[in-house]
Amino acid sequence: MNKNFESIFKEIKNLLYLGAKNRKHSFHTPTFSNISKKMTLESRIVVLRKFDEEKLFLNFHTDFRSPKILDLKKNNNSSFLFYDHLIKIQLRIKTISSINNQNEIAKQSWDLTQLSSRKCYLTKKRPSSKTNIPEDGLPKHLQGIDPTKNESEGGYNNFAVIQNKIESIDWLYLSYSGHKRLSINFKNNIPEFSWLIP
Ligand SMILES: Cc1cc2nc3c(=O)[nH]c(=O)nc-3n(C[C@H](O)[C@H](O)[C@H](O)COP(=O)(O)O)c2cc1C
Q1: What is the pLDDT of residues 106-145, one digit of tens each?
Q2: Which residues line ligand 1 (CB under 6 A)?
Q3: What is the mean pLDDT of the chain?
Q4: 3-state secondary structure 63-86
Q5: For the chain, which residues make up each domain, given as ranges?
Q6: Whole-number Å distance between alpha carbons of 163 and 58
Q7: Which atom of ligand 1 is nearest to the CA of 66?
Q8: Fold (topology level) of 3-129+137-196
Q9: In angstroms, rounded to a whole number, what is the distance separating the alpha carbons of residues 166 and 55?
Q10: Which residue's CA is the nearest one to ligand 1's atom 19?
Q11: Best CA proximity match to 31, nearest among 19, 20, 45
């Protein structure tokens, strides 16, 4: 095994771990992309909630009523894009998404979710619905305040954990002395490495 490969893979895992744990880390808010029912490409920022190093999952939370749920049910091919301008590392990660709603995985994450985050799941209308005025869709009495724990439970059915199984990672490191690019493909969670011309 090439030692360089292993140390780069270790660094990648550390960055994903830090991204999930640290709100201020640049890898905390990657771009997540998938293909819509209409076959258009959809990209948006999400919060990286968890990196499971053993199972190779990247998790984020979303509203079960949002259009991306139906799109991911139809086509579960997806990808994450990360970049940190200080360390000059880009990660392009291809994933296969699965949706967890009202199951054990959703329940475990919900129990750890703060009231301020639970609030997002209390909108009366579904995300992406049209509205006559610019508004967040939340009940008026929740303006500027968190719901009580009891009230927040009303959002549970709308809460989904999207688990994204890593299929491959494209690592790009920009350097004046020579850019480097490594491709990692996983077969049964075993990484296979190959250098690419950047
Ligand atoms: C910093 C930031 C973090 C976000 N985190 C999430 C998230 O974790 N989950 C999510 O569904 N949307 C998140 N959003 C909103 C999405 O980018 C997007 O606007 C929303 O999910 C609607 O996307 P859709 O129409 O493709 O469903 C975030 C936006 C920003 C700017």
Answers
A1: 999 999 999 999 999 999 999 999 999 999 999 999 999 9
A2: 29, 42, 44-47, 60-62, 66-68, 127-128
A3: 96
A4: ECCCHHHHHHHHCCEEEEEEEECC
A5: 3-129+137-196
A6: 6
A7: 27
A8: Pnp Oxidase; Chain A (2.30.110)
A9: 9
A10: 44
A11: 45
